[in-house]
Amino acid sequence: METIELDLDNENEMTFNVVIEGTRPGEPLCRLMIENDDMSFSMQGDFLPNNEVSILVPPLKGILKEGNYDSYLEVLVDDRVFIPLEMEIEFEQSIKVVAESVKKKKRVPVKTSAKFVGMNVKKNDDNQIQEIKTDNLSETKYTHPAKKRRDARKIVTGKDVDDMVRVLRNKINRR
Asked: Of the CATH numbers 2.60.40.10, 2.70.150.10, 3.30.43.10, 3.40.50.300, which one belongs to the domain with range 2-92?
């Protein structure tokens, strides 16, 4: 049995050479049958000159899975069914994209600190300079201004809730 490879996610055109012999030429119909475990799919062909039949197989992604399927060409003439060709069709995706999440190490936030060391005070009398040093002031932790704004938006006060309720009541009363 011949194996034909088709794209699962693209339209495929298949061409067959079909010769019908007989004493009474009837109106022939040709179709490709693809069989799955659950169901069969049928695609009707168009007769072309020189005893050729063209069959368009639409994209079947989402309908069929990748893999091999038993198939056959079926020719119907009057009330008779002929199966002149059997084959196996292997469906594959034309392009595969695989993505994986990459676990990154959690970044340690950058911390900065500052400490007040001292200051100079100029006295008005005699223009003497007195130096004051203090090491007892506490360190301050730096927070980015955008984070401060975001954190400030998260705080909802009782007044905020009262204002929201008042606005909603006004909207309801207007209707």
From this structure: 2.60.40.10
